[in-house]
From TrEMBL:
Residues 11-297 form the Protein kinase domain. The lineage of its organism: Bacteria, Pseudomonadati, Bacteroidota, Sphingobacteriia, Sphingobacteriales. The chain crosses the membrane at residues 355-376. Pfam families: Pkinase. It comes from Pedobacter hartonius. SUPFAM superfamilies: Protein kinase-like (PK-like) (SSF56112). This is Protein kinase domain-containing protein. GO terms for molecular function: ATP binding; protein serine/threonine kinase activity. Residues 385-451 are annotated as: Disordered.
Length: 456
């Protein structure tokens, strides 16, 4: 590609990437391997000061665009720089270069004419995130179309590009759209020069419609004015063609019958989102990208592997499978809580089956041991009754004729009374007990006398 002019100092022009009514996009290079995309606006600036109306409008719009990158977003291209070219005095916006094909290229050969349902939902999520990010900082894109959304081959993200129309003044925007705008993606109010948040929402719906059906709702047959007017009338007055009929007509023949059947099962919530985005009146659409993203997040199916279940429900098109499953789980949770609350109020103690089994076995074992001791213990043991011994008081009357010490008489009596005593014991009689006096030794007075003598 030829290098027509120098962009600015330090930024090398590597040739045009795309040209159009809203300007041209060139590939640039800064300081070695850093590659960027440079958007040139078609209206030249004669003086770089506030007295020039075009320059003043360009500066105002660029200040708005700077808000987009205050918080990074993976689905919005980074705006790196802006200025006026050295040759031609054209305003330019320097952006991050995204390496990968855009949606328009992905719908052409050798690719299929339509996207799979899973991939359409991914695009819907990424692009809604990009719109919500821009609308939060009050930036309206105004030129959302399939070749302004690129697939980043390094990150796997779909990225919204080309904020050139957002950098134009209202007058420049109306002139550009009327003569060379992508009219297939334009909202009805854009024909009158209006650009609202709902305008971006309408173009978002056209992109999703194209990915599912294989074509836009009102295609442009040629570049003549008559064809453009027909497309404009279609956006203003005609009903949107049935998307499932077009998808059935454009479904690839190379797909298996099972895949064809699966890919025709488009979620009802996705069709409803597209239908609302393509409303003729702006007030009937989503108010902005923020509301659109909320709807996508609420209704999207996280697991695309639910084959055969994500079908369009004619009787309830607004009900998604995810919402139905969530309602079912909420009902189960409430039933469980009610059951648990009823058990707590009735005072019933709930124990697990293993614990109950152990308690039953313990009771059985205790009953068995108790029965054994009660039935098999020895009841024939005799208990011998003990009798208290009788105390016999010794005879102190002095009538005994024998003289001498008591222990001498005891020895003589032991032999004669042995039989009597033993017999009396076994007959239950008590054996008499006698108290024996203990003889006391006489004190030795001789030792005392000797001791006394020694002392004297």
């Amino acid at each position: 590609m030829s290098k027509v002019f120098t962009i600015t100092e330090g930024l090398e022009n590597m040739g045009a990437l795309r040209t159009g009514g809203q300007g041209s996009v060139y590939k640039g290079r800064r300081f070695g391997p850093i590659i960027t995309a440079v958007k040139l606006l078609p209206t030249p600036v004669h003086m770089e000061n506030t007295e020039d109306k075009n320059f003043r409008s360009f500066q105002n719009e660029v200040e708005k665009l700077k808000k987009v990158n205050e918080e990074p977003n993976p689905n919005v291209v980074k705006i790196l720089n802006s200025g006026i070219t050295e040759s031609g005095s054209f305003p330019f916006i320097e952006m991050e270069y995204i390496d990968g094909p855009d949606l328009e290229e992905l719908l052409k050969e050798p690719h299929e004419r339509i996207f799979t349902v899973k991939e359409v939902i991914k695009v819907a999520d990424h692009l809604a995130n990009a719109l919500a990010h821009c609308h939060k900082v009050t930036v309206k894109h105004g030129d959302i179309k399939s070749n302004n959304v690129k697939f980043n081959i390094h990150t796997g993200n779909y990225v919204l590009l080309d904020f050139g129309l957002a950098a134009m003044s209202d007058e420049q925007r109306r002139t550009s759209i009327r003569h060379a705008g992508a009219i297939e993606f334009m909202a009805p109010e854009q024909s009158e020069g209006q650009m609202l948040f709902e305008t971006d929402v309408y173009s978002y719906g056209v992109i999703l419609y194209e990915l599912l059906a294989g074509q836009v709702p009102f295609p442009l047959t040629d570049n003549g004015q008559k064809s453009r007017n027909e497309v404009l009338v279609g956006h203003l007055e005609l009903a949107v063609p049935d998307i499932l009929e077009l998808r059935q007509r454009n479904i690839p023949e190379s797909w298996s019958e099972a895949k064809k059947t699966h890919e025709m099962q488009v979620p009802g919530w996705l069709l409803t989102v597209i239908e609302r985005c393509l409303e003729k009146l702006p007030q009937n659409r989503y108010a902005d990208g923020i509301k659109l993203q909320e709807s996508i997040v609420k209704n999207s199916i996280a697991d695309a592997g639910n084959t055969g279940t994500a079908v369009r429900i004619a009787d309830a098109p607004d009900t998604s499978l995810l919402q139905m499953e969530n309602d079912r789980l909420q009902t189960l949770l409430r039933n469980y809580q009610d059951t648990a609350g009823g058990k707590a109020d009735s005072g019933i103690v709930v124990i697990s089956k293993p614990v109950f089994f152990v308690l039953i076995m313990g009771v059985v074992l205790m009953a068995a041991f108790l029965s054994y001791f009660l039935l098999f213990r020895n009841t024939d043991q005799k208990v011998r009754r003990s009798q208290p011994d009788r105390v016999v008081v010794p005879d102190t009357s002095g009538k005994s004729e024998r003289k001498g010490y008591s222990w001498d008489r005891e020895k003589e009596r032991d032999t004669t009374d042995a039989d009597t005593t033993g017999r009396a014991y076994y007959e239950g009689e008590a054996r008499p007990v006698q108290l024996k006096p203990v003889p006391q030794p006489k004190p030795d007075t001789t030792a005392m006398d000797l001791d006394t003598t020694v002392h004297f």
